[in-house]
Amino acid sequence: MHNLCSIATKLYNTDNWIRREQWEKTGKIPSVYTQKKLLKENHWFKLLPSQTAQEIIFNLQRNYNSWFKLRKKDATANPPMFRKKEMLSVISFYQQFRIIGDKIRISMSRKYQFEHKIKLMEIPFKSWKIQEGFPKFCQIIFNKGKWYAHVVYEIAEQIPLLNDKVIAVDLGVINTAVTIDSDGNSKIYSGKQILAIQYYFNKEKAKLTSALIKQYPHRYLSRVLRIFQNKQIRQINQALHTHSKAIVTDCLNRGIKTLVVGDITDIRKDKNFGHKNNQKLHSWSFSKFTQMLEYKSIQAGIRFVRVNEYNTSRKCSICGVIRRSNRIYRGQYRCKRCGNLINADINGAVNILKKYLQDFLSRSIGNVALPSVERITNIVPFKV
Predict the structure, then answer these.
(1) DSSP string spanning 217-263?
(2) pLDDT, tens digit, 9 for 90 and up, residues 303-313
(3) What domains sit in the chain, N to C, each tagged with a CATH number?
(4) Which of 2, 172, 179, 222 is least buried, going by the fewest C-beta atoms within 10 A?
(5) What is the pTM of this model?
(6) Are strands 186-190 and 372-374 parallel, antiparallel or unpaired?
(7) Is 177:170 a contact under the CB 8 Å cutoff?
(8) Number of C-beta neighbours around residue 55 at 10 A
(9) What is the DSSP code string of 3-60?
């Protein structure tokens, strides 16, 4: 695998060199299809299976697309860099692999077979989690001296029925998630522990950075800062995994077939709520939490749906009137028209659920019960 991943690095750099040369000459980047045609007879391209080589070209194209978006905000942004010669790139397989027990069998390209006299390569793994379904995609990753395999399985889609139970999730900062199902049962997953982790580590990193700059004016990174950063990421990820697992487990225990999450893409765009609230907003890992919920629910056989969350926080869940602000104090929502008094996050979750039920299943929701609160108790954020 070392040889294949090294070949992938060389193909990536070859493609990047051609794109950069065209950018300097014409100010344009060749399309991915132009590059596929141009590199089809390249030595490194032919050493890899066809779809594997194409995925490397598509990966570089995605990197350039991200650069184009970033340049709109920051004109000084650098284009995708070349990879180090000794770097072992991630390598992907679509139809050229099979899973046999705890081994992955990979088919080599014709040129590789001719040069290295190897037709098939079998990779054994010490720990392997067998899944139901048909394996469609495989990624081999080398990270910190260890090899990992990520395999995507194709499973039959769960077709929702009119009488299936549905649960909606409203994401937030103070409360990581608020759930409500079609029977009216609600639950709040407190995010105060995550906020405490972020506040503590941000404060300590600021102290270290200040001391570092005084000693070394042009230096902003150190080994201690990296340790703090990694520890903060690990503790936040653990908290998010704890909440997402609890939500999916709750769905399985209650026989819920569909999980609906509000889509809050670009929630931070053009927002300014002051120094403290901006720190909370910009350290909010809603995208990562949504991804955790998605893969865990699909893995558990629960249908995952994203619903546009626009105006769900401002809209009254009883009468449907939309006002700019109906919060009488933190956490409480009161409608000035009908007098509805409800937890603000529960109100948002109800509106998300209603939007899904009305748009997809033409159903309504029952009475909302008082929410129960779930807190994380197995994380100690203040030990460094």
Answers:
(1) TT----HHHHHHHHHHHHHHHHHHHHHHHHHHHHHHHHTEEEEEEEE
(2) 888 887 777 77
(3) 1-156 (no CATH), 165-374 (3.30.420.140)
(4) 2
(5) 0.59
(6) parallel
(7) yes
(8) 20
(9) HHHHHHHHHHHHHHHHHHHHHHHHS----HHHHHHHTTT-HHHHHS-HHHHHHHHHHH
